[in-house]
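#structure-requests
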Amino acid sequence: MPAPTFEATIENIDQLTYNVRGFRFRLPSDIDFNFKPGQFVIMHIPHEGKTVKRAYSIASAPHEKGILEFCIQKLEGGIASNFFWNVKEHTKLTFGGPHGTFYLKEPLDYEPVFMPTGTGVAPFRSMIKHLLHINYTKPIWLLFGTRYEHSLLYESEFRKFSKLRRNFKYIPTVSRAKEWSGERGHVQDTFAKYFPNVPEDTANKQIYLCGWDKVVKAVSTDLADKGIPQEQIHFEEWT
């Protein structure tokens, strides 16, 4: 059975970084849209009299009723990203969904380790907000990798979460840092630093990766080479 379609209206547009914008959509009051943290929707984007369909992971959490949030990167020549760089608030778009099986594994009796790069943080923001909402008590790890410090999405929000909830471990890593006092290098380097003894350090953990396909493949291969079982590594890759 195909996923249902529905309309939502752009309520707010934020400049998250120099090349990523956040979009908050408001759903009609009669729509009860249920999804699992980590899932995505298909947006129907008008282009030259036709409809172009693109998949975007939901960055908001299920308990935030009536709202869907996304972070969208501007890509040179990208039909969808160019549309979003010119679209105005109050514009309505059609969606299909929810889709996808990239969500938290049940039962929740482990420590999740989220390892995104770039806008791959979107589904993890949804998962993290959900876990904090249900008062999940085990450690929640976010090892966020970017090239530059100004590219860290939702930086102030994640730092706020880490201060309010001691079980949320936010560890950003920058590979081409200029003025940066935090972790440097690639996200798998940070993983090796905090979990040096495999498999002992990772026995009670599930590891989630998301981002561009080449990066995700490289990180998942590196983790597997360290001795982490494949069934503990979950990923969604974008092309």
